[in-house]
Amino acid sequence: MNQRVFLSTTVRLTLLLLSLMLWGGCSTSTVENYPDRPISIICPWSVGGATDRTSRQVAVFLEQELGVPVNVINATGGRGVTGHSRGLKARPDGYTLAVITGELNMLHWQDLTSLTHQDAIPIMSLVDGAAAVFVQNDSPFQSMQEIQEYVKLNPGKLTATGTASGGIWHLALAGWLDFSGLKADDIKWIPMNGAGPSLQELASGGVDLVCCSLPEAKTLYESGQVRCLGVMAEEPLPEFKEVPTFVSQGMNWNISGWNGLALPRETPQPIVDKISNVMKKITSGEVVLQKKTFPEFMQAAGLSTRYRADKEFAGFLKSNDQTLGKLLTSDAFAQMSSRGTGPLVFPGMLAIAICMILVCLSVQKKVHALAPEVSSDTVTTQGIVNAVLVLSGIIAYLLFAEKVGFILTAGAILFLLLWKFGTRWWMSALITALFIPGIYTLFAQLLRVPLPRGFLGW
Q1: What tens digit of pLDDT does each residue of 138-195 get?
Q2: DSSP labels for 245-302?
Q3: Distance (Å, rounded) from C-alpha 93 to C-alpha 32?
Q4: 120-136 and 256-264 as β-strands: parallel, antiparallel, unpaired?
Q5: What is the pTM of this model?
Q6: For 217, which DSSP code?
């Protein structure tokens, strides 16, 4: 009894201490001393693209000015929902900064999230780059007119990528198709988590076209591995004057992608002011790092910049949201903009599955084909081993999924875990054969959530 009283008292003291720590973390002194610990920048797209490179350059300059480590986290998936949600729904204490992109003004029109630009405190717009279309160096296509004529005769034959389905580069290509009197899906779109992996897919022959900005493809373009057939801008880009515009090819179509830095809504104003002032110094060229300013670094990377601060950035977000909303809700994009599903589908399914398991446990029925004997001990050696096996499976998935692919990696891990936990081998194989392809079909095909494709493409 004394031991129970002691444990109860210990728990209460621990909870009280945690409460005091949380209260102290929200006090005014924390805001006044900001920042006094590392800061994270959430990038919603993969390594290698313009958004990722911009995020990392911002991090380096912020780290010098703020005096604390600034780390970039690539939170990809869900067509940009994952990264934008993680960045803008973080605790509003200034220690999580969000890099936002044009997809923020698209996702809610596509019924993928309730998140909008009003959930962000805009700090500074950074990149504003026109979309461009790329092909392999040995592609038979030499101009956008040739692509246009081919698609008219062969709808659905060509494949393209550049970002997730419904993302800004997908919208740019589909909008051009609609402008040309074709259907928005006459070129099959393959979803990818950003321009970096998309360009690698093009270079390896996995797709016919890539739509992204020219700076994102600069390395492969200058090395001659890919060719650019046109840029969706009114005038040639200063850094790539040799690339023809769509306008010069008789197609009056232009659209651009942008990114910028923001903070979660309700971030304390002193913190907002500090980040804003620092970013103004950085983007104006006052801060020098390795004998170069931020604008010089961006220019060297070939990134087209447009610095809009605070209220100007907020006004741009509002007008851009209205423009994209009109386009996405038009008849041409009705299929793209109304999926009827959102990012909470998977958590909802998982919750239902857990409830079903709990119901099965509550009635205490045992199915011999599915489970081994259950010990009455609270903690057993076998239980610890099983926990280690599950953790090993998670680590194995993280290590091999990108190279091997979702179906092979997840299938192998699920089969081995079921078999190791006592499920008969034939039942393990049957469950794996039904469950894994079903999950892949649901998310990769129907919901178009990018899953690792691996060397086999699935």
Answers
A1: 999 999 999 999 999 999 999 999 988 878 899 899 889 988 999 888 999 998 878 8
A2: BTGGGT-----EEEEEEEEETT--HHHHHHHHHHHHHHHHT--EETTEEHHHHHHHTT
A3: 12
A4: antiparallel
A5: 0.61
A6: G
